[in-house]
Amino acid sequence: MSKIKAIALGNYSDAKYHPFTEVDRQIEASLQDVADVHSTDDYNVLNHEALQEYQLFISYTEFSQVALPSEQIAALLSYVANGGGLLVIHNGISLQRSQELGAMIGARFTGHPEFTTLPITVCEPDHPVVRGIEPFEIDEEPYRFDMYPHYKTTILLEYEHEGQQWPAAWAHEYGLGRIVYLMPGHQLSSFSSQPFRQLIRQGGLWAAKVW
After folding, report:
1. CA 10 to CA 22: how far, in whole Å?
2. I want to staple 10 with a disulfide (CB 3.0 to 4.6 A). Which of 32, 60, 105, 185 is the partner?
3. What is the rounded distance in angstroms from the CA atom of residue 82 to the CA atom of residue 142?
4. Can you tell me the distance from the alpha carbon of 196 to that of 150, in angstroms, rounded to the nearest whole number?
């Protein structure tokens, strides 16, 4: 299998909670046998011409009150709708600051309780993104979400917290493209978890339509 081309977007110097430094290398390493990943903090890659070079776009973008330009929003929406893959990791759901991108991802982050150890279980073991993943534990921020109503997505993983089950990963199609969201990824130690690294690899391959 030839390697796909992927681009990962995060924030290096202006990240308040989730610096992309070293996380970028962990994402690249998780995909190294299947993808050539170019990591950047340049939001100008969100344009039609630049995105056409890649089969997979990976979001590790930082939360911000600054709105994305309409042209960048339209470029990413079009990229996925026309067949591109989108892999969103942890804080990458910050793209929700655009209502349109939030709807495409399928949920809105609403906050999280204190950092803790979370037991993760698989909901759809036959889905390619989670195939071969056994239940595992990971030290993480227990992100909470409002799932978009009337939007069909497949919950792939759940975590247990305070006696309830909460979504930890999901996947769906958007137009001709595919989207995967993975909740873990708050800190470097998260990327030392072998199940999580496998999820990044398999999520990227499914989103890019290699599988």
Report:
1. 11
2. 60
3. 33
4. 29
Q: What's the pTM value of the predicted model, to 2 decimals?
A: 0.98
pLDDT band at 186 (very low <50, low <70, confident <90, very high): very high
- The per-residue pLDDT for range 61-85, each reduced to its tens digit, is 999 989 999 999 999 999 999 999 9
Neighbours of 70 (CB within 10 A): 10
CB-side neighbour CA atoms (13 Å) of 81: 11
Task: Output phi, psi for 113, to 5 deg.
Answer: -70, -170
Side chain identity at 192, as an amino acid letter? S
- Cα 46 to chain centroid, rounded: 16
- Residue 101 pLDDT > 80: yes
> What is the per-residue pLDDT for 105?
97
3-class DSSP state of 35: strand
The fold of the 4-207 domain, in CATH, is Rossmann fold (3.40.50)
> Would you state the pLDDT for residue 188?
94
In three-state secondary structure terms, 87 is strand
By CB neighbour count within 10 A (0-12 exposed, 13-18 middle, 19+ buried), where does 3 fall? middle
- List the Cα angle 188/108/135 in 5-degree steps: 50
Residues 202, 208, 210, 211, Cα dihedral to 10°:
60
Where in the chain are the domains? 4-207
